[in-house]
Amino acid sequence: MAEFEKKNVLADKSYQFALKIVFLCKKLDSRKEYILSRQLLKCGTSIGANVSEANGAISNADFSSKISIAYKESLETKYWLKLLKDSKSLDESQFLELFEQADELSKILYSILKSTRINKPDN
């Protein structure tokens, strides 16, 4: 990371989470689990992509919209992780690690969303 870049914990966490999702989906693809893998890949990587877009927002409404999308994608990610676990496509330990990270992202995003929608008027 360049010296002039600010540390963004949410961006870092969502990026690291996306990497784990990419690696998991590659593993699932190698076992011919394409359908659930694609669903998880889309929403699991979309969290960080929308956080990145939010960081470049041009207004409070734009920021709030991107954070809202990231939050919804985190909820969807948790759904697909549960489905993969319950269908025996994902072992319990891997599920717990990823689910806890997705849940942490959900909580952070919800907290940001709540504070931006309540406390900040649009520019």
Characterise the protein shown here.
- By secondary structure, the chain is mainly α.
- The chain has a single domain (9-118), classed as 23S rRNA-intervening sequence (de novo design (two linked rop proteins)).
- Helix content is 80%, strand content 0%.
- It has four helices and no strands.
- The protein has helices at 9-30, 34-55, 60-86, 92-119.
- The protein starts with 8 loop residues before the first helix and ends with a helix.
- The model has no long low-confidence stretch (mean pLDDT 91).
Approximately how much beta-strand content do the residues carry?
A: under 5%
Helix content: over 70%
CATH topology: de novo design (two linked rop proteins)
Estimate nothing, just give the exact number of structural domains: 1
Principal-axis shape: elongated
Protein name: Four helix bundle protein
Organism: Christiangramia sediminicola
InterPro entries: 23S_rRNA-intervening_sequence, 23S_rRNA_IVS_sf
Summarize the structure.
By secondary structure, this protein is an all-alpha fold.
Helices, strands, pairings?
Layout: H1 9-30, H2 34-55, H3 60-86, H4 92-119
